[in-house]
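Many introductory courses stop at the sequence. We go one step further.
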Amino acid sequence: MGGVSWETVPARPHPALRPGVITYRGVRVHLDRPRRRLEAPIGAATLLLGFEQPVHISRAGRPPVSLVSVVNGLTTVPALGEHGGRISGIEVLLEPWAAFGLFGTEQYELANRSIGPDQLDSVLGQLVGALAALPTWAERFALLDRVLLERFGAGVPVSERVVRAWSLLRRHSGVLPVPRLAEEVGWSVRHLENRFREQIGLPPKAAARVLRLQRARRLLAAGHGQAETAAVCGYYDQAHFSGEFKAMTGCTPGEFLAARRLPAASPVNDRLAGEATSLLLASGRGALFSKTRAGSTGHADRPAIRLPGEAGASGGQGD
């Protein structure tokens, strides 16, 4: 297809930090048309260091923004990202407590938001220009290794109890009662909630919802049924699971899976390797996606998916 190309450099961890604390990948997408993506919540803060066109980002309850480089905190609602067809840069995924240490910003201020990194740190804006000027991904990653390690080491101290609590919650995929979590780290529930708000961005119960849904999407994508997934992930029943899924992604589990099965002209490039985090959407301003059920012409339209809290379509970022 003339004029259409894409490139994704596989995600890699920061070599000097514990695995999973900070990972990044390079992305370059050049298409002959605009592109829209629906992004579901994940258990990570994200930093997109962009080199080309801005991404138009909207989510329920927030005014839309257009940014070339973007910082996102944890979120419990889906987001919609659209660009004109050309985007490149480095996407950094951070444990939310690592984002607190790196940016020195209380993470509740970033929850359910997308802002420019220069609003947090002018050095990040200078870093983008330096990265874009380098000729290879290897050189860009080497520079990013150095800068992030320096800034993380000189950043705001992170509570080891918060790190432990977050690790426990992730290990149990969100199915861990908050009182037990507080007991495990030796804090009261109120103190745990306050520290999570500061260094994670969401209270423990909301963070648990994100992690539980993340596991549920992974199981669904692997072929497990909805009833089985609901039971394994600790939902009361399938109706509870479906309601939570729609509240946090804008669509039902069945609609999400149907859209994931549609053939795409270019890769989906999920933010987490091996996990279903994103949907490619029709580029029009109508339904968030259409043609998710086979019909006489190969596909037939489905109703629009609405983002929670809005009368119309809204809501992420992405390539």
